[in-house]
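Fold Annotation — chain and its backbone
Encoding — discrete vocabulary of local shapes
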Amino acid sequence: MSAQELPLPWDQIDTVLLDMDGTLLDLKFDNWFWLQHVPTMYGLRHGLTVDQAREQLAPRFAARQGQLAWYCIDHWSQELALDIRQLKHEQRQQIAWLEGAADFLKRLQRTGKRRWLVTNAHPDAYALKNDQLGLAVYMDAVYSTHPLGAPKESSEFWPRLLRVAPFDPARTLLVDDSLPVLRAAQAFGIRWLRCIRRPDSRHPPRDTAEFVGVDAVTDLL
């Protein structure tokens, strides 16, 4: 068993970087919103069935995957001629914690570790979810990738974060549900990495490839 697979050595960790969607919050909402609700609303606007709308939208979404625009409310509002902010606001009651995540954050607070939320979500999307669930009360800082101009899966992001918010990568834990994000963080030098196996509560656990997986953040403490 490698050191990465052993229980986390919390005495060697000063800073905990936490993803939002799929790590703390149930990705069920975002998957439903983009795969069902947006195609439905787009189809109503253009006289298409939901399946026809999905067929039209799929290549447009795929072309932006891995880019900052993929996560940008402004980009998709303009691209699709839909008010994405308003659509999200109307469905805000569906935003939910992953099981045990809020309790985990309370316990993590008591450890004295620095707790940073680091998310690809647009600042307005984060604000809506924070208003709904009160994420910020558990965090020492919140960083959206949008002001830094690169998503977490980009090699450009991590040095930019380090410049605005110094931390020691060798004494840092990142918890995320994205393999490309974890690979970029590993290449940057973040030592401790964990991947969420069940980002969407509707789906069974998935393979986390070369990274140690946990079903939920509650397994970390």
